[in-house]
Structures are given as C-alpha cells and as structure tokens.
Write a structure and sequence with these properties.
Structural class: alpha+beta
Largest sheet: 5 strands, antiparallel
Radius of gyration: 31 Å
Helix content: 55-70%
Shape: extended
Number of helices: 23
Length: 565
C-alpha cells in the first residue's frame, strides 16, 4: 500500500510541476523549434522545463522512460523542445545480478546454462530498463546474444499501468485538456506497445518477418532468431559483428558503397511500411551496424508497429500530394485521416498546410519527408485536429532514417529516393489482398442479384406517388425533449416566483393565525417556495450531470470507432 501511495505521489508531483504543458499543447501559436520563442517566457526556460521533464521520467523507472519515448514521437501533442528532450531519454539503468539472469534462462528454457551454451559471458554487453543482453556461444559453436527480461518487470509495469489508467480516466473525465488530447486513447496505444516489448515472442516474430522482407536486399542483414532458445522472457539470436553506423569514420566510409547502402535501406523501409504494413518505429543509428562484409545489420526490432491498410492508403496519397506541392489536397487528406475536435479550425488549418507544402516543394532535392510529416502532425494538433498516431510515428521514423543515410552518404537526397521509389509507393496503394478481393466479389455478386428487385420497388413507388425521402438533418426528438424540459423549468420558476411575491404581500395582512409573529399563510408560502426552489436546483444539477455523462460516453464510443477504423 505504501509503495502505491509513493508512486501516486510521484505521478501527482510530475503532473503539478508540468501542469502548464497541457495548455501549451494546442493553445500555443507556434511550437516548432523556429517559433518556440513566440511563447511566453524565454527559450532557455522552456528548454530547462523540457530537460526537467525528461529527467523526472527517467528517474521514475522503465514504464515512464518508455512513455517518454512514445511522447517524443507526438509532435502534435508536445512542443518541439520537449519532444527533442524526450527522444534523448536513456534507458540505461543499474544492472541486475547475472545470477538472476541465469536463473531466468534456466527456468524458461528448462536446462542449465552450462548445458545450453559452451560459453556464456557473465558481463552483460547492455543493460536497459526492460532487459539485459549477454554474449554466448551455443553447443554447436554458434555465436549468439541472449536478451533476458528483468526479474519482476512485468509486475512492476502492470502496477504502473493500472495507476496511469486510473489517472487517465480521471483526467479525461474532469479536464478539457484530457479530452482534447485523448489521453485514454494515447495510454491504450502505449499499453499495447509496451505489452509487445515485454513479450519476446513478438520480437522473435518481427525478426522472422523482417528477415523475409529483407531477402530481396543483398545489402541488408537481420539476425536470425533461435526459436529453441527463446521464450516470452528470453530471446536468443545470432550475433552480428560490426560497428554502429555512427562510429564509421570518414576514412572507413571510402571503402564502402554508401550510396547503395542508403538506397537499399530507404527502399526496404518504404516497402515494409507501404506494402507490408509494418513500421520499424525506431531505426535510429544505434540500431544499425555496419558489418565487416559492408552490409547493414538491423539489430533491434522490439518496436514494430502495424499500420492499418486505410492509414497506408492515405499516407500514399499524402506523400504524392506533398511531392506535387498540392497543399489543398494535403489538407483534405489530413482532415480525413484525423479526428476533428471542438476547436478544429478548417480554414486556418488549410491555409497553414498549403503554405507549408508549397514552401517545402521549393526546397527541391533537400526535401525531407520526415520533417514535413512531423510538422504536419504539429499543425494538426495546433488547429484542433487529432492525427492518427501512426502518422507521427512514420514521421519520426523517417527522421531517424535520414540521420542514418546521411552517415552513410552525406550527398544522399531523400526527395530523389522517393522519386526513384515512386513505383513502390503507387503500387502499394493499388495492392489488394486475396481476402479483400474475395469479399469484394461476394458483395458485387449480392449487389447484382438484388439490384433488379430494388430498382423495381423504387420505380413502382415513384409511379404510385409514394416515393419519399427522409433526411435526418437534426435530431428532432432530442430538440423537442430539450425544449420541453426548458419550458417545464421556466414554468416552475415563474410559479415559485409568484408564490414568493404572494407571500411577501401577505406578510402585511393583519388577519388570521400568526406564526413567529407573521401571518401563518405567508410563512407557509415562503417555505413552499424555498423547498420548491431547492428541489428545482437539485433536479437541474442531477439532470445536467447525467447529460454530460451521456455526452462523454458518446464521445468515447465515437473515439473507439475512429480508433478501430
């Protein structure tokens, strides 16, 4: 109980210290790096606040570190200074004893470490918030790395998520900022992402899938997972030799074909995203190795998101519209993809998007799609349009990808790469799965079967003068019900006012029985008016509260339908 109270106090302190941030999310006139100075307060204070937020999240443990990393992809929710600070969050933490790691491996795999591996290095090569990584050699002589989930990490994360879910429900229910941001939906997305990272069977499946996707690219290599040595808490995969892309010196770069590697990586990313619907959400330079064979190795596939078909289709259209400099079409597509809030300003949003797209086209070969998408996400949040989470993640991934390709080939032009891969981009929007084609064929068959009968009914009704159209422009029943309630309240208020006036007049009548020195009839009228007024106020309070509750429940159902779509 004390640990729960301590955790709640930490979260409450975090919210209090950064309570002004929620208002900045959509109210600030300019939240980009260039426009941050237009906000009240100096740029230095904003940067200090962002660093403080990152440090506090880091000190609160793995759940909050991961949550901060998710928030770093949401330029539509946070100022650029804060997303920049959060993306530098480090989840390097204190190492747990190797004896515990060995015990977990033996419990999960059902055999001793000595019988599983001919060599097992007790010194971990990495210690992250969720796991530790060890070098090992199997009995067959295969060099591998073993990721071991931290002891009791699932229970700790589960406890944190329960507290965050309760707080999110309270914030959604009682604050405008919570409803505007959609904190419950954001937390649900985070919960799913974190659950995937805590189950290494998911990462094993990602490794297998991406190995198949990369089979067409000779320049790319993805480590092979070893299923017999892997469970939900232990993941074993082949070890790739090499160095991080960021550690490659200019002299070493002369020995590799950087242009080919950059183009291959870019092509692979576009195909997996737009054709296969799988997004490697964290392709930063630290997750890519340059092998001695001068190939690129992707070594961390824990953060892989599935992009729904409808979002992919809209992304394809959006990329084409941006490439053509069509700002109006870009704004239309963004409005269709997003969820408009009460503060959505369509005209202002269209003007801002048109200006942004036209100005980016002027950059020519220097155009970076990642920057454009993240800026569009920021504009959406600023103008009251909640974009799909996948769009921000794609923009962030493209920004990371741009850093990688710049390390490999400083002259690499993302715009030219998009043009050379336009066939992949366009055909991905035209690709139809076998299941979708089969369903469409069935619906077409049913349509053709029922069309003659339905057409005859319409023509018969038209000939008999019975064809009628019903348009539900407004909810007439609800309007009439509201008017009825208003009339009843007004009538009751007039009656109570009349009784009060009558009581005031009767006070001066010197006849009949008296009560407390006043005419009894006047006192009775006063008491009746007071009781009636209190009952009326209580009724109004209860009914209005019920209406607000029903409206919020309706908004939640609408949000869930939008998220499911």
């Amino acid at each position: 109980m004390s640990s729960t109270a301590t955790r709640l106090s930490q979260i409450a302190l975090l919210l209090v210290r950064h309570r002004g941030l929620a208002g900045d999310i959509t109210d600030a006139p300019e939240l980009s790096a260039e426009g941050a100075g237009s906000r009240e307060g100096s740029e230095a204070s904003i940067t200090d606040d962002a660093r403080a937020l990152a440090s506090q999240l880091e000190s609160m443990g793995p759940t909050f570190v991961k949550f901060g990393q998710l928030l770093s992809t949401r330029q539509d929710l946070l100022p650029a200074s804060h997303t920049a600070a959060l993306e530098r969050l480090q989840d390097d933490v204190e190492r747990f004893p190797t004896e515990d790691a060995r015990a977990i491996i033996e419990r999960e795999l059902g055999a001793s470490v000595r019988s599983l591996f001919s060599e097992f290095d007790d010194e971990p090569i990495a210690a992250a918030s969720l796991a530790q990584v060890y070098r090992a050699t199997t009995r067959s002589g295969r060099d591998v790395v073993v990721k071991v989930l931290r002891p009791d990490i699932r229970e700790r994360v589960h406890g944190d998520m329960e507290l965050l879910t309760q707080l999110a429900g309270f914030v959604n229910e009682h604050t405008d900022a919570g409803r505007r941001i959609g904190i419950s939906r954001l937390l649900a997305q985070f919960r799913r992402s974190l659950a995937d990272e805590l189950d290494y069977r998911k990462e094993l499946a990602n490794l297998q899938a991406f190995r198949e996707f990369a089979s067409r690219e000779d320049s790319l290599v993805i480590p092979e997972p070893i299923e017999d040595y892997s469970t939900a808490s232990v993941l074993t995969m082949e070890r790739l030799a090499g160095k991080k892309v960021t550690d490659v010196s200019p002299v070493e770069r002369l020995d590799i074909d950087g242009t080919e590697l950059a183009e291959s990586l870019f092509r692979f990313f576009l195909r997996t995203l737009l054709v296969e619907g799988r997004l490697h959400a964290d392709p930063h330079p630290g997750n890519l190795l340059l092998t001695p064979e001068h190939r690129l190795g992707l070594v961390d596939l824990g953060m892989v998101a599935s992009v729904p078909r409808n979002v992919r289709s809209q992304l394809v259209k959006l990329l084409v519209a941006i490439g053509d400099g069509d700002g109006d079409e870009s704004a239309t597509l963004l409005a269709a993809m997003g969820h408009p809030l009460d503060t959505y300003d369509a005209a202002s949003f269209r003007d801002e998007v048109s200006h942004l797209v036209s100005s980016t086209v002027a950059l020519g070969s220097q155009l970076q799609a990642g920057s454009v998408l993240t800026e569009l996400a920021r504009l959406s949040g600023q103008h009251g349009l909640r974009p799909p989470a996948e769009m921000s993640m794609v923009g962030k991934a493209l920004l990371n990808l741009d850093q990688v390709v710049q390390q490999l080939d400083p002259d690499f032009e993302p715009a030219e790469a998009f043009r050379s891969n336009m066939r992949t981009i366009l055909t991905s929007g035209l690709k139809v799965s076998g299941g979708a084609a089969f369903t469409g064929a069935i619906e077409a068959k049913e349509f053709m079967e029922k069309l003659p009968r339905r057409a005859n009914r319409v023509l018969d009704a038209l000939a008999d003068g019975e064809l009628a159209f019903r348009v539900n422009a407004i909810d007439e029943e609800r309007v009439l019900q509201a008017a009825h309630h208003m009339a009843n309240r007004l009538s009751t208020a007039l009656i109570l006012a009349a009784i009060t006036v009558a009581a005031a007049l009767l006070v001066h009548v010197d006849a009949g029985p008296r009560l407390f020195g006043y005419p009894a009839i006047a006192i009775i009228f006063f008491l009746g008016a007071a009781v009636g007024g209190l009952v009326m106020v209580a009724t109004i309070f209860v009914q209005d509260r019920r209406v607000r509750r029903e409206r919020r429940a309706k908004e939640k159902r609408r949000d869930s339908r939008v998220e499911g779509a």
